[in-house]
Specification:
It is a single chain. By secondary structure, this protein is α/β, with parallel strands linked by helices. The chain has one domain: 2-Layer Sandwich (Nucleotidyltransferase, domain 5). The protein has a five-stranded mixed beta sheet with strand order 3-2-1-4-5, sandwiched between helices. The C terminus is likely disordered.
Length: about 190
């Protein structure tokens, strides 16, 4: 099963566009992990044409807070419909089980004993100052954390988050996360 773990960093904030609508934002960088090649890569908005064939051949796309934010934003750039590909949003799974959301950093600390390398607002500042490599590295770090959380959840049927000084477990039923889907695109659109 070819799994793509992804994350997006934007060029602007919601207050820049006047609404809390991710499709009004602009992509700076998309970072991915591709299970087929076991590699990480990143794409500027101008390079997304190189990402489309990878996503089109994916069996599953995995993200964090991706159903509401990343997928609608990425789909704005895609000439087809990326929602046709099986998609798993780790935060949505947590909310469905635990009843509330939490930050990626809380899960990274609790489950993986590591912290994120920055904040999304840092990426926007880096974009404005032309520090593209910093954005790419930050985005790939978030992809790496998301992948490691996914792998941990699959192996242990739980995640752990840190709240204050406490560690709290979130039980998860991951048995159907990788069930085959009929929503696989098996073509590459000509660009």
């Amino acid at each position: 099963m070819r799994k793509i773990v992804f994350d997006i960093e934007t060029r602007n904030f919601f207050h820049d566009v006047g609404k809390h609508d991710p499709t009004l934002l602009d992509i700076a960088v998309v970072g991915i992990y591709d299970s087929e090649t076991e590699s990480y890569s990143s794409y500027l908005a101008e390079e997304l044409h190189k990402l489309w064939p990878i996503l089109e051949r994916a069996d599953m796309i995995i993200g964090f807070y991706s159903e509401y934010f990343d997928m609608p934003l990425l789909n704005k750039y895609y000439p087809g419909d990326l929602t046709k590909i099986k998609h798993l949003d780790i935060l949505k799974e947590i909310k469905n089980t635990y009843g509330r959301s939490m930050k990626l950093d809380q899960l990274a600390e609790g489950t993986l004993s590591k912290k994120k390398s920055g904040h999304g607002s840092d990426a926007i500042k880096w974009w404005k100052s032309g520090e593209i490599e910093k954005i790419k590295n930050y985005c790939i770090n978030d992809v790496r954390i998301t992948k490691e959380l996914y792998d941990y959840a699959k192996a242990n049927n739980k995640l752990i988050f840190k709240e204050g000084n406490q560690l709290k477990e979130i039980p998860l039923n991951t048995s159907d996360w990788e069930n085959p889907s009929e929503n696989k695109l098996t073509f590459s659109m000509p660009f």
